[in-house]
Write a structure and sequence with these properties.
65 residues
């Protein structure tokens, strides 16, 4: 799978989930921003591990060949 396709999929999943959660949070009388933050925490790389196959950044050691 291409990295660009993977990033696009992540954006679409986030927007769909936020589009569902933000209005629900609004009905509870809280700010929709709280809904966006909740979705970001839930589906982010450290949340539910939804995108576990996403490429990770690694720090390289300058002395490694």
């Amino acid at each position: 799978m291409d990295v660009g396709t993977l990033e696009l999929r992540q954006v679409i999943v986030f927007l769909v989930a936020a589009g569902i959660v933000a209005p629900l949070v609004r009905r509870l009388g809280m700010s929709p921003v709280f809904g966006f933050l909740t979705v970001g925490l839930a589906i982010g790389p450290h949340g539910l591990a939804r995108f576990a196959d996403a490429p990770k950044c690694h720090r390289s050691d300058p002395q490694d060949p």
